């Protein structure tokens, strides 16, 4: 039987984190400022969060028996990502483990098909979609009024361009049908958009919702390249994004941090994807906000009062650092030294064991001082050019 958890009498809070990558690492770093101990369940002792953890449970994050060891002494347990076996974790929750978000809230979000069904049930706008299994093997064709290209997505395990395919023809569609399990894939109609936006929100155990600024994200080969916040959009768009995210939190009785990605264009604001966790699009909040996304997650998991969060700089730029091909570029040490030599650059290095092409190795945040959106945009473009002169965008992403 799991010891009683989430007790207010715990003097030195300790939380558990399932997963040991950079999101868990930044959570553990945030915990130090609040004197909260962090136990991490990770598959390698050299994973980014392992060196930051108070205690390490060395096991694959989907190993539920190991999670049973992780939770001992913890007042709450949270997740680095949504790749968890919810059914297997239910007995732990029934024994008193306080997961945030709860398994019930997490369940419809871990699968893109159930995500789309949830959005439809809530009348939240999102791209038209259909199950790949609804397409005939014998005579594959798109639903009526659809045109190529279309986006195909795996229902699970997709990230940073993995688990997605752009289909440009009937031949592409036929090939996909032959190469995957159609019941585990969906098709989305192509969305013409002007901007990609993202918002990270949190909801505490009392039902209070807090929001980080709406951000504009820029992708390269379906991987986040850079982010600027706040997004340069009308206030009505910002409020609509917040209301959509808050509706999801409330409907699911969700306690934790959640990210919503949007397309914005001629058809208005549409939900692209929902991530039930902290998110790359809000890494800027560590330097730019009074309470970062990781501080929000920490306080909720540990049962601490959750602070309001707001920008304490006019804006921020966040630039991802992806692994480069060997040869033709400066060495890793040279690139890092150049980034560290600039006082305005806040470098976050994840400490991963090797540089492989496309792998997320770190990020740089630059606070923006412009008093209006155009001046911040110009400032961000100048800083981005400087960063990319030191650390180019990888031509071929293979994270």
From TrEMBL:
PANTHER family: PHOSPHORIBOSYLAMINOIMIDAZOLE CARBOXYLASE (PTHR11609:SF5), PURINE BIOSYNTHESIS PROTEIN 6/7, PUR6/7 (PTHR11609)
Chain sites annotated for binding ATP: 112, 153, 188-191, 196, 272-273
Annotated ATP-grasp domain residues: 116-302
GO molecular function: 5-(carboxyamino)imidazole ribonucleotide synthase activity; ATP binding; metal ion binding; phosphoribosylaminoimidazole carboxylase activity
Enzyme Commission number(s) from the entry: 6.3.4.18
HAMAP family membership: PurK
Function in brief: Catalyzes the ATP-dependent conversion of 5-aminoimidazole ribonucleotide (AIR) and HCO(3)- to N5-carboxyaminoimidazole ribonucleotide (N5-CAIR). Catalyzes the ATP-dependent conversion of 5-aminoimidazole ribonucleotide (AIR) and HCO(3)(-) to N5-carboxyaminoimidazole ribonucleotide (N5-CAIR).
Pathway noted in the entry: Purine metabolism; IMP biosynthesis via de novo pathway; 5-amino-1-(5-phospho-D-ribosyl)imidazole-4-carboxylate from 5-amino-1-(5-phospho-D-ribosyl)imidazole (N5-CAIR route): step 1/2
Keyword Ribonucleoprotein recorded: no
UniProt record similarity statement: Belongs to the PurK/PurT family.
Keyword Ligase: yes
Keyword annotations: ATP-binding, Ligase, Lyase, Nucleotide-binding, Purine biosynthesis
Originating organism: Prochlorococcus marinus (strain MIT 9313)
GO CC list: cytosol
Protein name as annotated: N5-carboxyaminoimidazole ribonucleotide synthase
Catalytic activity: 5-amino-1-(5-phospho-beta-D-ribosyl)imidazole + hydrogencarbonate + ATP = 5-carboxyamino-1-(5-phospho-D-ribosyl)imidazole + ADP + phosphate + 2 H(+)
GO annotation, biological process: 'de novo' IMP biosynthetic process
Subunit annotation: Homodimer.
InterPro entries per UniProt: ATP-grasp, ATP-grasp_carboxylate-amine, ATP_grasp_subdomain_1, PreATP-grasp_dom_sf, PurK, PurK_C, PurT/PurK_preATP-grasp, Rudment_hybrid_motif
């Amino acid at each position: 039987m799991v010891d009683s958890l989430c007790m207010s009498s715990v003097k030195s809070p300790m939380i558990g984190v399932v997963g040991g990558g950079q999101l868990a690492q930044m959570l553990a770093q945030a915990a130090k400022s609040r004197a909260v101990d962090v136990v991490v369940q990770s598959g390698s002792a050299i994973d980014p969060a392992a060196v930051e953890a108070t205690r390490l449970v060395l096991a694959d994050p989907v190993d539920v028996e190991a999670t049973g060891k992780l939770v001992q002494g913890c007042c709450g347990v949270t997740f680095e990502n949504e790749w968890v076996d919810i059914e297997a974790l239910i007995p732990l929750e029934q024994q008193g483990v306080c997961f945030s978000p709860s398994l019930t809230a997490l369940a419809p979000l871990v699968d893109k098909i159930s995500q789309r069904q949830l959005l439809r049930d809530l009348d939240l706008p999102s791209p038209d979609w259909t199950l790949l299994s609804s397409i005939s093997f014998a005579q594959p064709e798109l639903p009526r009024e659809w045109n190529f290209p279309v986006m195909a997505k795996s229902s699970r395990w997709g990230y940073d361009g993995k688990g997605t395919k752009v289909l440009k023809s009937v031949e592409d569609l036929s090939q996909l049908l032959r190469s995957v399990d159609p019941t585990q894939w969906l098709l989305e109609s192509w969305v013409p958009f002007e901007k990609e936006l993202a918002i990270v929100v949190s909801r505490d155990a009392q039902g209070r919702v807090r929001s980080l600024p709406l951000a504009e994200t820029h992708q390269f080969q379906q991987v986040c390249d850079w982010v600027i916040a706040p997004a340069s959009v009308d206030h009505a768009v910002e409020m609509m994004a917040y209301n959509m995210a808050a509706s999801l939190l409330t409907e699911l009785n969700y306690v934790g941090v959640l990210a919503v990605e949007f397309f914005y264009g001629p058809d208005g604001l549409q939900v692209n994807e929902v991530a039930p966790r902290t998110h790359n699009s809000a890494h800027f909040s560590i330097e730019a906000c009074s309470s970062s996304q990781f501080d929000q997650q920490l306080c909720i998991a540990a049962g601490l009062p959750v602070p309001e969060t707001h920008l304490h700089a006019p804006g921020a730029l966040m630039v991802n650092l992806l692994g480069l091909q060997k040869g033709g570029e400066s060495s890793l040490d040279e690139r890092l030294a150049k980034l560290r030599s600039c006082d305005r650059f806040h470098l976050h290095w994840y400490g991963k064991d090797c540089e492989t092409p496309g792998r997320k190795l770190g990020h740089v945040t630059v606070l923006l001082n412009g008093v209006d959106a155009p001046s911040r945009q110009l400032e961000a473009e100048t800083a981005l050019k400087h960063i990319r002169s030191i650390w180019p965008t990888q031509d071929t992403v293979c994270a």
